[in-house]
Amino acid sequence: MDQIIKAISEDGFVSISVITSRGLAERARVVHNCSPVVTAALGRTLSAASIIGSSMKKAGASLTVRINGGGPAGSILVVSDDFGNVRGYVSNPAADVPKRPDGKLDVGTIVGTDGMLSVIKDFGGKEPYTGSTMLVSGEIAEDFAAYFAASEQVPTACAFGVLVDRDRSVLAAGGYIVQLLPGAPNEVIDAVEENVAATGPVTDILNGGDAQLLLEKVMSGFSPRVIETSPVEYRCTCSRERFLSAVLSLDKAEIDDMVEKAEPIEVCCQFCEKKYLFQISQLLHRS
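^ thats the sequence. predicted structure below, dont judge the formating
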């Protein structure tokens, strides 16, 4: 089961959120029929958005992450609710590039670095908060660390990973966001940096391990106290009524053209690929 564990160090200087997200990444892979490297890119973004979304402490709040680095994958869009349930899509899910010399999936190249990472937080008010930063590496984790430093002025270390099997299914996925809280002394900062370096790739731990083990490794020596543990899932919020409203919001000329053609209208959800078919009679009745 995918879940997020949130904890804080005994001294109160370090907070961490750890996610296991194999189910999220696998569901996205199946829905969009992603290549392995796109699965890795989208899966990492789903993990990051889920953690950040779950930190929004207002019911009904939502988070949108947009990444467009000019790479073969095109744009990545992920939406999270305030519980960390996510949905996402990528413009070119079948895009592929050769593996890196070390045999790893080349997420940086498939995403690209000629573009922006944008995080939009909607708390239900008039204007959502938007923070953007230039992409650093296209590897996702480094880009989110740069976002936190530039847009929220919070020293942050991030790591996300997706391990893809030979049959393209997801074996393990997850990661963490660890942040220094105000007043953290230099020795705490040094210790966190050492722990992050010693932890290594998150999928090495999650492939057979769990979120608790990952948390303990990153927070070694800090006696972390778990604050919250919550399940998360890939959850689309589309509905027939919502898509009908979207069709009816089109210009009158477009609707009249559809009615004149007298052909059923098929609409496909970009997040879950579910198709909705509307008969012309529905447009005549509701327009």
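The chain has two domains: 3-231, 240-286.
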